[in-house]
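Reading group handout, session on sequence-to-structure problems. Before we discuss, look at one worked example. The prompt was deliberately terse, the way you'd type it at a terminal:

> structure GntR family transcriptional regulator

The input record follows.
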Amino acid sequence: MSRTEIATEIVEGPKPKHAQLRDILRRMAEHELPPGSPIPSERDLAEQYRVSRITVRAAVGQLVAEGLLTRAKGRGTFTARRRLDVQLYLESFTEDMRRRGLTPATEVLACAEEAPPAEAATALDLMPNEPACRLVRLRRADGVPLAVERGWYSPRVVPDLDRHDLTTSLYTLIADHYGVQLDHAAQTVWAEGADPETAKLLGVRTGSPLLVFHRVAGSQGRPVEAMTSWYRGDLYQVTMQLDRTVPESGPHHSAKGGTP
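And the output record:
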């Protein structure tokens, strides 16, 4: 039996054949094949499991929609790369990737003293037109482009930041050189389609789904960083711990699932 063959048959019964095949292919994608591996062709799957190609297309299409499989025009269908799971706490990209056993790499795309836009100036508690360090970086993990970061840094707390090597952990640099340990942050997360520039940097198509993280971080009440990161939606996901505690005032969001 080859690596892609699974000793499971599709049988007549109440469960639709496309759903049975979907489960077989899901197990194949999650447990049998490494990321980026081809799955058998529609024709081979139809012959192996004695179903129509319409049934195969339905099963494969559902797993493509779920993100377990990806189609490459003219090449076939492949198992998708595993998403990195991010927990929402204050940690540098470099430290996060190393903790996962991946090799981080950073390319500095822009770094200059400029007057930030009003939103960033307010976040950093700067005067109008007061310059700050604008930093744009491309972050990779094991050579794969994962995120684009565009941030502003307070010259009052981390002056002359542009004179340092910014291809390593920025948080470690700020702690070691400036004696500033970032200890709090407010972060907002949303989804959007990749614009042409960001798509090119990340190696995805324009309009591809991205996770966007906007963070304002500081130390001992002083704002230090106002940064937005665009992460590839096909390689990144967010996990949050939820409880039933409701804030005493202000807007809140509830999460519902399972049985009450």
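Points for discussion. First: Confidence is low (pLDDT under 50) at residues 1-7, 251-260. Second: The beta strands are 69-72, 76-79, 84-87, 104-114, 132-141, 144-153, 184-193, 209-219, 222-232, 236-239.
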